[in-house]
Amino acid sequence: MPRSAALPVSLGEDFALYHAASGSTGYVFCGAWGYDELCSRKFLRRLAEDLADAGFPVLRADYPGTVNMRDPVPDTGLEGWIGTAVDAADRLKELSGCSRILYLGLGIGSAIAFLAAQRRKDVDGVVLAGPVASGRRYMREVQLHANVTNEGLGLALQGIHGDTGFSGFAMSEKLQADLKTINLDKLDLSTRPRCLVLTREGNENDNAFAGSLAEKGLKVQCETFEGYFALMAAPTTSVVPPKAIADIVSWSKTNFASASDADRPGVAASPQTVIVKGDGFVEQPVTFGPNGQFFGVLCRPETGDSTGATAVFLNTGYGHHIGWGRIWVRAARELARKGITSLRFDMANIGDSPQTDGLPDQVIYTKEAFNDVSVALDFLEREAPGPVFLVGRCSGAYVAFNEAVLDARVKGVMLINQLRLIWDPGEDVEAALRSGARPLDEYRRRAMRLETVKRVLTGKVDLIRAGGHIFSHVSDRLSRKLAPYLGPLTKLGRFRRACFSNFDAMARRGIPVHVVNCENDGSLDELARYFGADFSGLKAYPNVVQTIVPNADHNLTPEDAQQHLLSLLDQALLNARWNDGQAVRSQAAE
User: Fold this and answer.
1) Which residues pair with 344 in a beta bridge?
2) Where is the AB hydrolase-1 domain positioned along the sequence (predicted)?
3) Is the overall model pTM greater than 0.70, yes or no?
């Protein structure tokens, strides 16, 4: 049997995720924010599982207005984040019966964890992973990282502003100002917990902060945070660092009481029904599937009356169920206000859903993902019966495209920036995810720009990597031109036959297929591969509608692009066809 997902439990008017264990010392996790949170969700889940196996109960809580939490009032700032971490410790003690608390913070979460620990008398230790001692320096680094990310996505920096200014993630001016006031080096300490500091390679600020803690009389152990940069490089390809997990578990077992030396039964963990009420929506964090393996959030209209189809939002790479810039959270809630129910969930070994036993760690572009979606549809048949509409971006679009053919319960799909429609088993997944977001024409345009020439001359462009991307595109175009003449003799010819077979099957069933591509996105090359440079081959399918989103990157980072997508979802999911079908099913059920 697969491992169970963490139990959703209430935390104030929101929820947290609980990993049960019987030790007398428990952990409260304070995660990173924004892009870093999207990269590290799976890492913290895996770490929590290993700590729970070692006897430490764990509660993972998110800050107001982040991840799945309700959007906060405008003046919510740093105090709201610290208060959540403090309240989470009380909730953990209620759930587990533990008497002592440890905090773990990652990135900006390390500052939140340390500040929360100063407000309690029951904290024995704090893990500071990739620590943030200066909030002002942190905000500079966040903005710099966002600028680099946006440049890599092909976005004009001057066109990205407002509440999507940090790689699509929102942060209020109040919170930005509050975070800049953090200065742990000058903090007057009320408690001196034992500390484990995981320092990033080459980061002197991390080492200096660890030294300042030791000078203040804290017992400090330092370890190198090996694998930090691979973890935070990109949500689609994030790699969990095993040594960091091992170091934290070892430090915890060495210094604090766990189940092995705690003579108490603990508090049994049992599933709870947690309901979060928001502005026009009601959300329920859920686990489902074999042994409760899968985690998701069911979002319904606050009236309880649903219309249209039920949307299912799928993962992109290893990015978890909230989507880039929380776009799936935003979409789910806006749809709920218009009467649409949705489920956003993590497939196996992504985000908050554990791995399936016996399967490889790499799960992107694998057939196992189709099984995961099928399990989600089984769940929806019980909880929200009706037509199902799959929504996926990039690798999620690949899953939606193929699952719609395999499962007759799927009545519609939206494929957003699909880099692959048919997967080549001989292709390297990470290379495909990293190289495919720009089409060949975009490389040509960028090569002609003066600033690109300057960056090449100054060594700021990886010519080998860029050349590899261009060679891949050129090879693909040559193969595309030969395919009509060689047919099934070529690999592309076989892929074309499989692709057309899928489109034919959906056309016979009358499934609406919405193909959404951002301007200058690599997914346009994939469409041209099968339907011609002008995509005229799509006209053979009256059930297919293609839309080009202007001035947007592969992730739909700009606010205008996100609004465009939300409008397309409205049109697709509020179509009268769904209500007609729903009425027929209701009568049949009676």
Assistant:
1) 297, 313
2) 312-560
3) yes
